[in-house]
């Protein structure tokens, strides 16, 4: 008896929270579980009682009843070096964290690029460990989407899947940015500035974003010039070095070019360096536009005109879709497409 009384005093119960808040036990349970079916007044009273009593939900006991872990995974199929260096990934994490506020769900981050990392992550991604998965997979060959579908885990992709499901199949749930429209907008801006020989340094073509940005470039150039010159297209791997190499290739094949759309800001910084080495002035001789509006775009010399992506909103929408799927809520659509916008700076 003494042990039980000490435990009760040391760990407030759901009933104690209900008594303090002046509501029923069921109302407290709904607040703790993130249910929207609670009035703002009752929610505020329960949250105040939880804070005053220091109530901590017993997740293990609740999991036995609800068959949920209250955990979701954000899995990134890239190296740690790339994840922590690129503003895209940190923005997604901030957005997802914001999107999970007001729910009981905890977020854990996993990197799955090396074989060892992938084996560890695949072992953990089961319904015994997580309720759902947010997956940032930039490469077509990534097997994780298929594996998660086979295990029946609710999954939301960051970016359009490599292959859309066949009609009648389970729809793909994803959040993406309209990269075709963003690249088209950038080229149209250059045309409006009087540029007529517009090249591009495209990103990896085994990624949805890389293909979409190149498609947008092709469409806009074809609409302006009537055809696309293959000599005006180089490819990079999103690194600064590949941007410099791509720029040198373009200058060698088309020295008369007067503008370049680059598929990432980091590659655009490499292109800027190659242009300086070649004695070309930016923007007087060659205008340049990057993509993503990362911090480096504002710090480059000159500052980069760039296509900005609503990265944090992308993370919030990914979290919103996943929570709805976990709760079995009806969705108006299985995917969300967000609009990018151009930010003019000195480079163009």
From TrEMBL:
CDD domains from the UniProt entry: HTH_LacI, PBP1_LacI_sugar_binding-like
Domain HTH lacI-type: 12-66
Pfam families to which the protein is assigned, alphabetical: LacI, Peripla_BP_3
Single GO MF annotation: transcription cis-regulatory region binding
SUPFAM superfamilies on file: lambda repressor-like DNA-binding domains (SSF47413), Periplasmic binding protein-like I (SSF53822)
Keyword match Transcription: yes
InterPro entries for the chain: HTH_LacI (IPR000843), LacI/GalR-like_sensor (IPR046335), Lambda_DNA-bd_dom_sf (IPR010982), Peripla_BP_I (IPR028082)
Keywords, alphabetical: DNA-binding, Transcription, Transcription regulation
Record PANTHER family: HTH-TYPE TRANSCRIPTIONAL REGULATOR GALS, LACI-RELATED TRANSCRIPTIONAL REPRESSOR
Protein name per its UniProtKB record: DNA-binding transcriptional regulator, LacI/PurR family
Lineage, uppermost ranks: Bacteria, Bacillati, Actinomycetota, Actinomycetes, Micromonosporales
């Amino acid at each position: 008896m003494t042990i039980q009384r000490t435990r009760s005093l040391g760990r407030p119960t759901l009933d104690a929270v209900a008594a303090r808040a002046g509501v029923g036990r069921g109302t407290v349970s709904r607040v703790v579980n993130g249910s929207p079916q609670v009035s703002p007044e009752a929610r505020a009273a329960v949250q105040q009682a939880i804070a005053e009593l220091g109530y901590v939900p017993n997740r293990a006991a609740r999991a036995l009843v609800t068959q949920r872990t209250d955990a979701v995974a954000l899995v990134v199929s890239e190296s740690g070096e790339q994840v922590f260096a690129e503003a895209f990934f940190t923005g997604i994490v901030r957005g997802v964290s914001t999107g999970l506020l007001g729910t009981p769900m905890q977020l854990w981050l996993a990197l799955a690029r090396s074989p060892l990392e992938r084996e560890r992550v695949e072992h953990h991604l089961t319904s015994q460990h997580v309720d759902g998965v947010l997956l940032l997979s930039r490469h077509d060959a990534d097997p994780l989407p298929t594996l998660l579908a086979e295990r029946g885990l609710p999954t939301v992709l960051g970016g359009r899947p490599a292959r859309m499901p066949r009609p009648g199949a389970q729809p793909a749930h994803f959040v993406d940015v309209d990269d075709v429209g963003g690249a088209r907008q950038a080229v149209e801006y250059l045309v409006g500035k009087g540029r007529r020989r517009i090249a591009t340094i495209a990103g990896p073509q085994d990624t949805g974003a890389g293909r979409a940005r190149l498609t947008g470039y092709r469409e806009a150039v074809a609409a302006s010039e009537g055809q696309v010159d293959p000599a005006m297209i180089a490819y990079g791997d999103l690194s600064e070095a590949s941007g410099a190499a791509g720029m040198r290739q373009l200058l060698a094949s088309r020295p008369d070019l007067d503008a370049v759309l680059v598929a990432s800001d980091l590659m655009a910084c490499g292109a800027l360096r190659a242009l300086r080495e070649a004695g070309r002035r930016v923007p007087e001789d060659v205008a340049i536009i990057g993509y993503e509006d990362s911090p480096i775009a504002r710090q480059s010399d000159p500052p980069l005109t760039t296509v900005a992506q609503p990265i944090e909103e992308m993370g919030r929408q990914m979290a919103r879709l996943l929570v709805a799927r976990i709760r079995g809520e009806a969705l108006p659509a299985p995917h969300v497409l967000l609009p990018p916008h151009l930010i003019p700076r000195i480079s163009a």
